[in-house]
Amino acid sequence: MLNQIIGTPIIQSKWVPETVWVKRTWKERLFSFPWKPFQKMRETPGVYVVGGVIYCHPKRYAEIVRGLTQRPPDASPSGSQADEL
User: Fold this and answer.
1) Burial class of 61 by CB neighbour count within 10 A (0 to 12, 13 to 18, 19+)
2) What is the mean pLDDT of the chain?
3) What whole-number distance in Å separates Cα of residue 41 and Cα of residue 39?
4) What is the reported pTM?
């Protein structure tokens, strides 16, 4: 059920890097926002969307599932907020 989010399939692969450091050119360092000229690398995400399919690392998939299945801390199943009205 959670292998698809609104009809979009999610594929787990250990070959998808969780984070990758990509070298930055001097032009990117000087003229990008936020301005960080001394940072030589930038981090890329570990989730990729290719042709309507989401590819992610198994650790990132676990975070997605945990985020979708967790109930917010202020949500109460008994409906105590409705009783206050």
Assistant:
1) buried
2) 76
3) 6
4) 0.51
